[in-house]
Amino acid sequence: MILQEKKLALRRDARERRSRIPRAVASSAADGLFKRIIDSIAIAAGSIVSGYWPIGDEIDVRPLMNTFHEIGHPMALPVVVKRDAPLAFRAWAPGATLVRSVFGTSVPPDSVPELVPGALFVPALAIDNAGYRLGYGGGYYDRTLDTLRGAAGVVDQPVTIGICYECQRYEKLPHDESDERLDWIVTEIGVKQVP
C-alpha cells in the first residue's frame, strides 16, 4: 500500500474513532485545556497565538482562545489564501466578525491584519507519539510550519501544539519528508512533549 493510501485509511479510522466519542466527553473536552497548557508548555508572555475554529466534531478550542486573549496574548486564526500555499494568520478577538471560508470553517475577513504566530494550536485528525499528524489531506499546516521554521532571521521557533482526543493518538503514523512534526500533544486527558 502506498503512503497516500495508508494515510487515507488512517484518516477514515481516526474520523470513526472521533465519531464514537460520547457527547458528554466531547462537550467537556475543552475543560482544563488551558490549565494543562499553561502548566506544561512555555509560551512567551504576549506572544501571538494561533487558534483554529473547530470543524464538525473537533475539540472546541474557542474557550481556550478566549482565555489566552484575556491574559494578554494577541490571537490569530488560520486562513487558506491559495491552494497549495502556506496558511495566513489573521488577527482575531472574541466577538470579532468572521466569514465562511471555502472549507466550511469561519475566518477573519481579508481586511483584517495578518500576524505571525509564536505558538500554534494545531488541530489533528490523528497524531502519533513522534509528533507527526494527519489533517484532512491538504498539507496546509505542513507547508506553513516549514515556512515559519525556515523564515530568515527567526531565532525563536514557533511552539506547535497538536490538539485532539486521546482516541486519535496512534503509536506511529506513516510520514515522509514533507510532514512536519509538532512539539506537543494535548488531549482531553493530558499533555505530552514530543521527544
Blueprint of the fold:
Layout (H helix, E strand, L loop, with lengths): L2 H17 L3 H6 L4 H8 L8 E2 L11 H9 L4 E5 L8 E5 L6 E2 L5 E2 L11 E5 L2 E3 L4 E2 L5 H11 L8 E5 L5 E2 L13 E3 L4 E3 L2
Parallel strand pairs: 1-2, 1-6, 6-9, 7-10, 9-11
Antiparallel strand pairs: 2-3, 4-5, 7-8, 11-12
Polypeptide structure, described:
- The chain has 195 residues and is α/β, with parallel strands linked by helices.
- The chain has one domain: Rossmann fold.
- The chain has helices at residues 3-19, 23-28, 33-40, 62-70, 140-150; strands at residues 49-50, 75-79, 88-92, 99-100, 106-107, 119-123, 126-128, 133-134, 159-163, 169-170, 184-186, 191-193.
- A seven-stranded mixed β-sheet has the order 3-2-1-6-9-11-12.
- A hairpin with a 4-residue loop joins strand 11 (184-186) and strand 12.
- The radius of gyration is 16 Å and the shape is globular.
